[in-house]
Amino acid sequence: xxAMANAYEMLMIFPDALRDEALTRAVEAVRGEIAxxxxxxxxTDMIGRRPFxxxxxxxxxxxxxxxxxxxxxxxxxxxxxxxxxxxxxFRFQIVRAEKRRATAxxxxxxxxxxxx
Length: 116
What we know:
This protein is an alpha+beta fold.
């Protein structure tokens, strides 16, 4: 991993028909594609089955998975092209992960006492 790598998150939707072992294999294939473009996966969040707000291509739900990874910005386009070729993947979106703002969480509220 190069020093110029950024943090990204990929939200993926797999067909609802993929269950357990098949879903695990599909996620591992995506992790492999990230490694092929020089990225490193930091974490996997198996969100689970979620219904869609409205039917998409005659489907009403899907299996959601979120991956956190680091990759060079110039390799994201290549990764997107590889993801489009994945037959098991219904939809995906890659976004740059925002840095957590520790100061926002550490900021103290003013006491709610008597005010004049």
